[in-house]
Design goal:
Blueprint lengths: L21 H18 L3 H15 L11 H69 L26 H9 L2 H8 L3 H4 L5 E4 L5 H8 L4 E5 L2 H9 L4 E3 L2 H6 L6 E7 L7 H14 E12 L4 H9 L9 H11 L3 E7 L12 H14 L4 E7 L5
Parallel strand pairs: 1-2, 1-4, 2-3, 4-5
Antiparallel strand pairs: 5-7, 6-7
Helix pairs in contact: 1-2, 1-3, 2-3, 3-4, 3-8, 5-7, 10-12
């Protein structure tokens, strides 16, 4: 990047150094960066590339190795004679480059802030769309029969939250994001029909199973969640899981899914639910229970943000409860690793410590218990 007083010949189409308008050059740079931020998602790479190039040429100086021998001696002599002229130019160049770096950084921060605001606006729009659809799918006020209760959940705080649907929508994220997170379970349940999705929410997994041709139905304690899922054409009813499993025939299910449910259940209810699940599954049936990983500090923040959680469950606790409930095989799968990681340095000792910090600070956000009943039961 050339400063206003550089003496190199100007390329074709560029004014001579003496004619360069610094203010105009800054405005041109600002406009180029603004246009790059609007035109595509590659602006982060463009900013990084521009910043790296500017960093490379920032420390401008007239001092260069002169070499040895007579030629080097002549260069050193001439440098002393010219320093009074060259050094002010180099100083001006350094000031110019420093100013450009600060401008690039400021524009990058503004672009990042604008991107964050746009993402927040898009998230709010998705939430409003879901809430409007929720209202449309509620039973009309004049319909036959009493309105369904807001929630029949066993967790004590669920009914106390004024708008549990909106609360869950904000805490868990969009339906598209949940679908992608739950897509990994389709293969586990492909041969497990019929599947019962307990706490199915808006029906993300049920939609995936329908697309895969797997027979499945769902229950949810919240009336709005159940109505929303039915609006997607899914077989869902509002029910308490203990009551529903209690009236389900033994051995009639091939698979049970509980996504982010077990952490909502008080200890006795959780143990009872796992025992019922084992009884309702046929031999070789599978239970998948996904929950927050309390070994992750980031996940614990999300855990304590939800007032309806009863207790976090470390993997060993949930696995032991499943074994005691009658499941013959259990497996723990860790899921959804955060993108943030500390960079490991070259030093092997420090790198080992950083690796350990990464394991502690950036552990997977969730884990899933995969439990199976005995095949010859």
């Amino acid at each position: 990047m050339s400063g206003p007083e550089a003496k190199n010949p100007a390329p074709a189409g560029i004014s001579s150094p003496e004619e360069i308008d610094v203010a105009a050059l800054f405005e041109r740079l600002r406009e180029e960066l603004r246009r790059g931020a609007v035109q595509g998602d590659s602006r982060g790479a463009e900013f990084a590339s521009t910043r790296a190039l500017a960093e490379r040429f920032w420390p401008v100086t007239a001092e260069r190795p002169a070499g040895g021998g007579p030629k080097g001696a002549v260069k050193r002599f001439l440098r002393k004679l010219m320093r009074w002229y060259v050094e002010p130019l180099a100083a001006d160049q350094r000031v110019f480059n420093d100013s450009v770096l600060k401008l690039v950084d400021a524009l990058s921060e503004r672009a990042d802030a604008a991107s964050g605001a746009r993402e927040q606006a898009e998230r709010l729009v998705r939430e409003l769309q879901e809430r409007l659809e929720r209202l449309e799918r509620r039973a009309p006020a004049g319909s036959a029969g009493p309105p369904a209760p807001v929630t029949v959940a066993a967790q004590p705080a669920a009914a106390a939250i004024p708008d549990y649907f909106a609360f869950e929508s904000r805490m868990r994220g969009s339906t598209d994001s949940i679908r992608e997170r739950q897509r990994c379970y389709v293969d586990d349940l492909r041969a497990a029909a019929p599947v019962l999705d307990i706490g199915c929410g808006r029906g993300e997994l049920l939609g995936l199973l329908r697309e895969a041709g797997v027979e499945a139905r769902g229950i949810d304690a919240d009336a709005d969640m159940a109505a929303y899922a039915r609006g997607e054409g899914l077989d869902v009813e509002q029910a308490d899981l203990v009551e529903y499993l209690g009236r389900t025939p033994d051995g009639s299910l091939g698979g049970i899914f509980m996504g982010q449910v077990v952490e909502h259940l008080p200890g006795p209810t959780l143990a009872q639910s796992l025992g019922l699940a084992a009884a309702k599954l046929r031999p070789g049936g599978v239970l998948i229970a996904e929950t927050i990983n309390p070994l992750s500090p980031i996940a614990l923040r999300n855990y304590f943000a939800d007032l309806t959680h009863a207790q976090p469950l470390v993997p060993e606790t949930l696995e032991l409860l499943a074994r005691q409930a009658g499941f013959a095989e259990t497996e723990i799968r860790f899921l959804n690793e955060p993108a943030e990681r500390l960079t490991e340095p070259d030093d092997p000792v420090i790198a080992a410590n950083v690796r350990r910090l990464n394991e502690l600070l950036f552990a997977p956000l969730d884990y899933a218990l995969v439990a199976r009943t005995a095949a010859n039961a």
